[in-house]
Each structure stands twice: as structure tokens, then as C-alpha cells.
Amino acid sequence: MVNVDQDFGHEYLKKEKSHMELSAIITPSAEGGYVAFNPETGTTTQGDSIEEALANLREATELYLEEFPLTLTGRSLLTTFQVATHA
Fold first, then answer.
1. How far apart are CA 27 and CA 19, in angstroms?
2. Count: domains in the chain
3. What are phi and psi of 49, to 5 degrees?
4. Which of 9, 21, 35, 68 is the most exposed, fewest CB within 10 Å of its CB?
5. Do the Cβ atoms of 16 and 2 come closer than 8 Å?
6. pLDDT tens, 18-50?
């Protein structure tokens, strides 16, 4: 989408930033805090809180995508499965 803004009688074209919806898997860290992982890019970060881990993941993933653009072919599906435990 393109917006046209007027500034001192001149027209400038401004592109709106597009957004990509990606997945985040956040797990507690054994050392404290949280680990955040994005499966689409493989980026992984950490933070003292869920919010900090997610913000760090967003920043790391944006930096990654600047170097390695990604074209998504569909939405990710998150599910769970069970495995047998051994005592």
C-alpha cells in the first residue's frame, strides 16, 4: 500500500512497512529467564522475562531477514506429540 503525503506543496510517496507473521517458541531456561526460538529462520535469543525474550527475538529475526529474505508459503502449525518416558 502506498500513502501520498503533502509537505510544503510537494508530494512524496511513502511505502508502508509490510509485516510478516512468524512463530515464536518460548521456553523457560535452566539458568533462569526464557529462551525464544523462531523456527522459520532458526533465530534464537533469550531474556529475563517472556516480553524481553520476545522483543529480543523480534530484533534478531529482523536483522536476520535483512541479510536472508524469507518468502513464506503458508502459516506454520504448532502442535504437540507424546513420547514414551524411560524410568
1. 25
2. 1
3. -130, 165
4. 9
5. yes
6. 888 999 999 999 999 999 999 999 999 999 999
Closest of 46, 16, 17, 18 to residue 31, by C-alpha: 46
Q: How many residues does the chain have?
A: 87
81 occurs within a structural domain: no
Q: Are 17 and 5 in contact, with CB atoms under 8 Å apart?
A: no
AA letter at 70 = L
Report if residue 63 sits inside a domain: yes
Please answer whether residues 23 and 78 qualify as being in contact, where contact means their C-beta atoms are separated by less than 8 angstroms.
yes
Q: Identify whether 12 is part of a domain.
A: no
Neighbour-count burial of 56, counting CB atoms closer than 10 A to its CB (0-12 exposed, 13-18 middle, 19+ buried): middle
Phi, psi of 79 (to 5 degrees): -145, 175
Please check whether residue 42 is in contact with residue 59, taking contact to mean a CB–CB distance below 8 angstroms: no
